Amino acid sequence: xxxxxxxxxxxxxxxxxxxxxxxxxxxxxxxxxxxxxxxxxxxxxxxxxxxxxxxxxxxxxxxxxxxxxxxxxxxxxxxxxxxxxxxxxxxxxxxxxxxxxxxxxxxxxxxxxxxxxxxxxxxxxxxxxxxxxxxxxxxxxxxxxxxxxxxxxxxxxxxxxxxxxxxxxxxxxxxxxxxxxxxxxxxxxxxxxxxxxxxxxxxxxxxxxxxxxxxxxxxxxxxxxxxxxxxxxxxxxxxxxxxxxxxxxxx
Length: 251
Hints:
The protein has helices at about 5-20, 25-35, 40-60, 65, 70-95, 95-100, 105-125, 140-155, 160-170, 175-200, 205-230, 230-250. By secondary structure, it is mainly alpha-helical.
């Protein structure tokens, strides 16, 4: 990469780290940039995933106050994210990307609908939640696993899917749900990164380093901004980023 290209990749990492911490879909910035500077699609996807792991760690640390009291939730949902990320990473290395990528816009659109309807659906679901299943039972775990599969395979808009799943499942402020989402998405990225380091044929380590440095800064900034956003503003940001994700994927 030229110095200008390296700067562009670093800046994309900063933006992606912040967006992933706020809502998700940061990969829709870094992945196209890596393609634009000349990396093949598979190499770009794998390198992007590796580079965004430190950003997830920085975002989770930045949201440490919102994560207090959520240890039981993390322990409940994280195994589903871990297994999903492992499955998705294996599928990425074993299967052609075209079949899965073709349905990604539909997944993102469904997640956006759920996010928009979240307050109303939460009120209805609250009346049906069983007292012995405070975290929503097996269905949200299965959905979290599915989001992990998607995240391990490609990753863009994984955060939006998780926000929709967790928002419908947990009776809590959206900022606290968003903090849990950062941990779960980071779990998916981390386990996929391990698979890629072991088995991926090509990794652009210079791009990984640049995105990692940028996403660490962006993850911290995103957490600081996200803490002060009103729930309505955060939900609006989710919709805007989600619509941008659909446009990127379709084009």
